[in-house]
Write the C-alpha cells for this entry.
Amino acid sequence: MKTTLDKLSPGETGIIDQFTDLELSLKLLEMGCTPGEEVMVIRKAPLGDPIAIQVSDYLLSMRKSEASTVIILSGKSGN
Amino acid sequence: MGLEELKKVVILGNPNAGKSSLFNALTGLNQRIGNFPGVTVEKKTGRFKDAQNKQYELTDLPGTYSLFPKSLDEELAAGVITDPSSPDYPWLTLVVADASNLKRSLFLCTQVIDLKIPVILCLNMMDLAERNRISIDVAGLSQRLGVPVIPTNAREGKGIEQLIEAISKHTPPSAQSTVDIEKIENKAIQDIRRVLKVNCDFASFIVANNLQNISFFQHNREKKEEIMRILELNNFDRKKLQALESIERYRSLSYLLAPVISRIPSGTSRTYKADHILTHKLWGFLIFLAVLFAVFQSIFAFAEWPMNLIENAFVYAGEQLSYRLPQGMLNDLLVNGVIAGLSGIVVFVPQLILMFAFIAMLEDTGYMARVSFIMDKLMRPFGLNGRSIIPLISGVACAVPAIMGSRTISHAKERLITLLVTPLMSCSARIPVYTLLVSLMVPSGARIGIFNLQGLLLMGFYVAGFVAALFLALVLKFVLHSTEKSYFVMELPVYRSPRWNNIGITVLGKVKVFLFDAGKVILGISIVLWFLSSYSLPGRMDAIEKKYIPHMQDPTAKDFSAWQTAMASEKLENSFAGILGKSIEPLIKPLGFDWKIGIALITSFAAREVFVGTMATIYSAEEDENHLTLKEKLRAQTNPENGKPTYSLAVCFSLMIFYAFSLQCMSTLAVVKNETGGFRWPVLQFFIMGIMAYASSFAAYQLLS
C-alpha cells in the first residue's frame, strides 16, 4: 500500500519508495533517506507539526509539508 | 632557516559530529574567530605543532552533510576543499565522522575521498557508538576507504596524539573511489576534466554541480563560462544527476560497511526517553518556559552587580584621570569621550558572557534543536525559525547579546529577520525612561481593581514591543527575497552533557569579537556625541562661562552647585547637540515634543537611558537617586501658549511610544553591522524603526491631545 510519510502515526514504519519534489529530495537523500530505506515516525511536535522520524539509526525532524513529498511503501504498525 | 610556509589543514564534518571539540583539542586557546571574506560566515582558525615542532594552520569549516551545498555556510565549506585557487585550499583534510552515525558521516567523507585529495578520517564519538552496542573494525574500514582512520574522543582528548602523528606523515590520496561517476554521467565530465586540467571525474562532477553558486570560480570567469557552455551543450541535468549520485553513494556505502560494522539491537535509547518529556505537549512547553525564564532572569539579574562594578570602576578611573591631568580639551576628551565610551562597551561583557554560555550550553546538549522542534509551528507564520525565540525573548534584557546569539540560526533570511526585529523588544535600557514617564502619567498607587495602574501600563509597553517585533517580522518575510530554500529537514542530535571547556572557549571568542570589532564603532560614536554635546560655535561657551564663573567663585555665594547646574544646562542648550535639538523642533512638534525633548532625543541616540540624565541637565534638576526633583520640575512645566502642563498625558504617552520603537542604541547598531557585514542593514534598521516610532507617536499624540 502506498501512502506519504506525513500520513504515518507515531510508531508506524514504512519503506521509502520515491519523492515528489526533486529539489527537496536532494536534501532528504543526503540525510540518508534513500529509496529502500526503512523509516519510523517516532513522534510529532506538541502542536502536531513538525514530525521526528528515525532513519538509519538517528532522529530526523521535518515539517509535515516536507514529509508529504515522500512516498512510502506498506505502512505497517510497529510497537 | 627560511620562513617555512604553514601547512594548511582543514576540519570538515557533519554538524554535531564533534568538529569544534576536535578543533579545540588540537589548538587549545591558540585560535581566533573571524569571517570568511565578504560574508558573515564564521571562520575559526588556529595553530598547532607536531612532535617535530612543525607548525600547522587549522581551519574549522562550517558543518555540512555533503559537497552539494544547500546554504551559504555549506557553500563555503564545499568551496574551500574543491577549489584549488581558494586561499584556504588545504594541504590535508580532516573529516570528522560520528561513529554512532557512521553511514551518514561517511556519505560526506567518501565524497571528499573521491576528490582525490589527502584525507584523514577521525572517527569521533566512539564512546557513544559503544554505548549503542555498535562495533567498528577500524583497520578494515581504513583499508576499504584507502585513508588513515583514527579513533578519537575529542571531549576527553583521546587519540589526539595519534592524529597529530598521522597528520605529520601526510598520506597520499586514496586510490579507491566509492562512486564511479562514469556510470552516472560521462560526456560532459570528460570535457570539463580537459578544461580544468584535472584527472579526477568526481572533482569535475562537483564543479559542474556547484558552478551556479556565486562563490565558485569567482576568479576565473573564462573557465566558468566555458564549463557553463559544456553543461548546456550536454543538457547536464544538475538536480537529477545529484539525486542519482546520492542514491548510488548510499548503495555503495551499504556494501562497504557491511563487513566492518556490526550492531546488536539495543533498547530505546536515552535520547528517545528524554525527548518523550522534553517535547511533551505539556512538559515540553513548561520546561522550555523554565529554560527561558532562567536565561532571561540571569541576564537581567545576575549581570547587574558586575555591571555596576564595571561602571563604578570606569567612573573612578575617569575621576582620577580628570584630577591628575591638566584641565583642558584633552582631559575632557579622555574622561567624557574615551573613558565614557569604553565604559559603555565593557559594561556589556557580563551580559554577553551569560548569554553566550547559555546558548552554547543549549546547543551543546542538543536541546536547542528541540526548541526549534516544538516552537517551529508558532514561529513559522512570521518568517522566523524556532531558534529565533531565544534571541527574541532575551532581547527583553538586552538586544546586544540577543543579536550576537542569533548566529545559531543557519538560514540566512530567518537569521536576518530575527536580528532586525529583536531591538523592538523592550530592553532594560528603556526602563529608566519608562519609569520616569509612567510616573508622570499615572499617580503612584492608582489601581484598577487589584492591579497597579503603573505596572499595567508598563506591561502594556512590553507587550507592544513584542507585537511590533512580530509585525515587523511578518512584513520583512514578504519584503525580503531569499534564494536559499527554507528547510526544516534537520537532525535531532542525541543528548550529551555540555563540554564546559568548549563552552568556555566559545564564550571567550565571542566576547573578544564584541570588544574589538563592535567596540570600535561604539567608541567612535561616543566620541562624536561627546563632541556634539560639549562644543559649540566659537565664542558661545566662553560667553556662558564668563557669565557664571564670577558667581561660582564668589566666596559669599551660598549655592555653588545651583550655579554649576544652571551653567551645565545653558551650555548644553548652546552646544551643537542643543542647536540640533532646536532645529529639529518643527519635525517633532507633531509628536508633541519641544526642542528640549529634541536635545534629549539627540543625546540619547547612543543609549536610551541617557534621556533621563539629559532631561535633568536641561531642567537644571539636582541629581538625586529617584529623580524626584526632575519629576517635580517636569510636572510643573506649563505650555506658555495655553497654560496647560507641558508633560501632559498625550506628550508622555507619545514619548514612551517613541522610545519603545526607535533604535536609539549605538551598541545594537554596532553589533548588527558586525553580524551582517556592513552598514547597509543597521542603517536600514535605524530608519525602519525610526519611521515606526515617528508614525506611532504621531498617531498617539494626535488622538490623545
Notes: Chain B has four domains: 7-169, 181-263, 268-302+348-425, 540-704. The mean pLDDT of chain B is 86.
